[in-house]
Design a protein that fits this description.
The protein is an alpha+beta fold. Helix content is 17%, strand content 39%. The chain contains 7 helices and 18 strands. The protein is globular and about 65 Å long.
């Protein structure tokens, strides 16, 4: 049986407009994007469309060489429920999944979207076969609560009009819907605006968009994201386009951490030596904001078996780049300041990285924050000796909020 059915059998049948859309953003191992693109184009487009799945577009993230973005649509949730098991249980995925997964660090960044209003569903047009043209620009605003009719009307008017004033293209909207049938869908609420443009460099949404976002209760300044299509998209540049993207970092990212905490530490005794021996100890932490929210500091007591010591984390936020820098100061060597890790939050996960040295050899350092919306957030540190292709976690802190300081 051939890996991909013959072309005559893979022409996607006529289908209703796509009322369910997945936005999928994959983080790849360095240098693997072209490998995945070639495999995806060859094996995973026609095989999905033969099952009624609409592959709406594949894109290169212009700001991240190791990010692959693609969109697929379904007539409705019932069609999605039938098509996905057929594809992932079929022969094409069985034959090529190992090669695809080998290119990926993370494939769980998925938003499941539906139209914000009647008539805004994506048209189920045929894919283009020519070279990619233009840019797709997305703006996603994560909301504090469900979007009511008044907020949607404001978005449709002010934000979409702002985008149209920048040049050819349109900006309709979608909202995600959190559904238990999609295990990897991010549980969030957002409103999104999209535009497809043939201009280069890409047009930018102006300050009016930021002003609107701040005035209507959004918690953050939106950071637009630009993707260059891998192949001709299934929509013309002036076609109404509906989909979504990621939330940027903001000065409020670490507000969840303000206060007093009990800390349970697990730390690898040796780093990047194949060690599997961990030590566990307790600690406590107090964090407070600085500089009107543009910075914060936490004071830590670490109760090592060999005796306690103190350490401090210092964080500052740069509004120009929407990124955080984080320094760690060890009280046992207070005049040494390690290089800061730099990064931010996306979809509730904070990731921060830098280059450093260990035993005279270059290493990549990564901090990661998870579970920040719960009373028990987690921080992890990992090192990589191969430029980020593989990581070894060497320190885990589990935090438990204390009602009163100790």
């Amino acid at each position: 049986m051939p890996a991909t059915p013959p072309t005559a059998d893979t022409t996607a049948p006529a289908a209703p407009d796509c009322r369910v859309v997945e936005l999928r953003q994959y983080t790849l191992h360095p240098g693997q994007r072209d490998t995945l693109i070639e495999l995806f184009d060859r094996e995973f487009v026609d095989s999905q469309e033969a099952l009624g799945i609409r592959v709406l577009g594949q894109f290169r993230d212009l700001d991240d060489a190791d990010r692959f973005v693609w969109l697929r649509g379904f007539a409705d949730m019932a069609a999605r429920g039938d098509a996905l098991p057929a594809f992932y249980g079929g022969p094409v995925w069985a034959e090529h999944r190992s090669a695809a997964n080998a290119t990926m660090v993370d494939s769980d960044d998925v938003l499941l979207l539906r139209p914000a209003e009647d008539g805004a569903a994506l048209p189920a047009q045929a894919r283009g076969d020519g070279p990619a043209q233009g840019l797709l620009r997305a703006l996603v605003l994560h909301l504090k609560g469900p979007a009511d009719d008044e907020l949607l009307a404001l978005c449709r008017g002010a934000v979409c009009n702002e985008a149209r004033m920048q040049g050819p293209g349109t900006s309709p909207s979608l909202r995600p819907t959190t559904l238990p049938t999609c295990r990897c869908a991010r549980a969030s609420r957002c409103w999104s605006a999209w535009r497809c443009s043939t201009t280069s460099p890409p047009v930018r949404l102006g300050r009016a968009t930021w002003t609107l976002a701040c005035s209507t209760g959004w918690p953050a300044r939106p950071r637009p994201c630009v993707w260059r299509p891998r192949r001709a998209p299934p929509f013309a540049p002036d076609t109404h386009l509906n989909t979504a993207m990621t939330i940027p970092s903001t000065p409020q990212d670490f507000d969840f951490f303000i206060g007093h905490w009990k800390v349970s530490h697990r730390r690898l005794k040796e780093r990047l030596l194949g060690c599997e021996d961990w030590e566990s100890f307790e600690g406590r932490c107090r964090m407070w904001p600085l500089m009107n929210g543009l910075g914060n500091i936490d004071d830590n007591v670490l109760e090592l078996p060999t005796g306690p010591y103190r350490a401090v984390s210092m964080r500052t936020f740069d509004p120009a780049t929407c990124q955080w820098a984080i320094w760690w100061v060890d009280g046992r060597n207070p005049h040494r300041l390690d290089p800061p890790v730099v990064g931010g939050f996306a979809n509730g996960v904070g990731e921060f990285q830098c280059d450093d040295e260990l035993r005279g050899q270059p290493v990549r350092v990564r901090y990661r924050w998870t579970d920040t919306a719960t009373p028990t957030p987690r921080w992890q540190q990992a090192f990589s000796a191969d430029g980020g292709q593989t990581w070894e976690t060497n320190w885990v802190m589990d935090f438990e909020r204390l009602p009163q300081p100790i």
